[in-house]
Task: structure prediction
Amino acid sequence: MKFQRPSILMWTRNWIKVAAGLVFLTITFISIHMFYPSLEFDTNQKQLVWPPKGFYLRQQELYGNKTGLVPTEKSAMVALVRNSDYHGIRKTIQQIEDRFNREYGYPYILLNDEPFTTSFMRGLQRITKSRVHFGLLDKKAWGYSPYVSESKVAKKLEENKNRYIYGGSLSYRFMCRFQSGFIHKHPLLKSLDFYWRIEPDVSYYCDMPYDPFKMMKENDYKYGFIISPPEKSETVETLWKTTKEWIKKNKNLLPEKSFASLILDDNNDYNMCHFWSNFEIVDLSLYRSKAYESYFQHLDRAGGFFYERWGDAPVHSIAAALFLTKSQIHWFEDVGYNHIGYSHCPHPDLMAQRCTCKAEDAYPYGAHCHNLFKERDDITKEELLRRLEIS
Result:
């Protein structure tokens, strides 16, 4: 059988196949890198770079016909999560997208004390057309206060483990300290004016037909909340004593008028009322203020985040009451919400029509601390100092 040289037609067909294969591989490579940018650490190991470019603008190639959505305020939804929280935070983000953010495009910032897995990051990026940024915490922000004894902390954890929930949890104390004094300092939040704190496994029941960040800014609201239950007194046994010590040393940092009456009982001690901080929308100038930083540093030196179980919620709430007026604190009555058994569902008809919850599932209405929020008024610095017997 004679060997036949390939015809020009055969060579041409083979080259066309090779060229087509190369084109296919090139398109696949570009598509993968367009839709799934590389996951990498930046040079200072503070944050994961994902996506690698831009903060507020969307990539038009990535988001098809839903393009050009630019948030009007320098704001973001922010959560502290772990890789094990994937399904819980996915549920929360999906609901926020459905109820509000798909029309506004605000970014998400997720923070972790350990690197996020690739599957965690890609899975969450797929459910939203907004930017999702993933950041790491450093040891200064997530760890022991330099002012506490680790051996004493271990002893206190053992003593308190059966006294109250998270009584023996060290990581919970790391979290409360971080949320109280460091979250607003993370590099990913530096350019923000407002943040909306979100958490895994939170249900949002109501459509939000407006931009809450813009609403906060236009009305000069500095702190927004939904529910305000009382704190467990055994977790904050010396918090008010420590707060009064700070007030005595820093009277010059107090405003001339504030909503401090909200947190005082009939004996002018702390009444345990606090805003639940797993939902809070905050003008970050509050946490960046000289007064708040001084207050946090004083608390950190006292060691109560570890020796007791001072939560970020009472810390934020006391600070808001001391540094803000009533007109600067906003109750988001129209936001239906549920988190580990605490629910709020709006009563007014115009609000309830946008919700899927039952009106009877409404914790705040009639609750003691909420009634105080409605009934009480601002007091002067002079009146506050008189009540606290501070000269």
